[in-house]
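Sequence only, no structure available. Ideas?
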Amino acid sequence: MRKIINKYIGMDYEHRGNKGTVDCLSLVVDFLRDNDIYLPEDDGDLIDKKWYKDDPNRLIRELKKYANMKSIDEIKTLDVLVFKLQGVPKHAGVMVSRSKFIHAREGRKATVTRLKHYKKYLHSIWRVESEVS
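Reply:
I predicted one. Tokens follow.
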């Protein structure tokens, strides 16, 4: 997995990232795909830069279609984390170990961060599985 992590570390953030850049969603989708887990990259509708203002539940609604919510006690590598920023669940990352996750934030490069530094923003944990109930 180290090789896959290194592929993304340091990539520039760009909304709906072009080749060589990522935003948090494209990083999650591509990182999972590189680990043989499929998650669609969008819901078929335009993802405007401020999508969360018009539809604050969009990210969670779409994750529910493909993943099961887990508790913090069940967290494991490759789980998708959703963070509530500015009161809205609008940021995501992927666990790369029991205590660290990879993510990309606006204005920053993709990085691996300790979950304890973001725990107060944690909204939910999702596991993409072959059969979603």
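The mean pLDDT is 92.
Hope that gets you unstuck.
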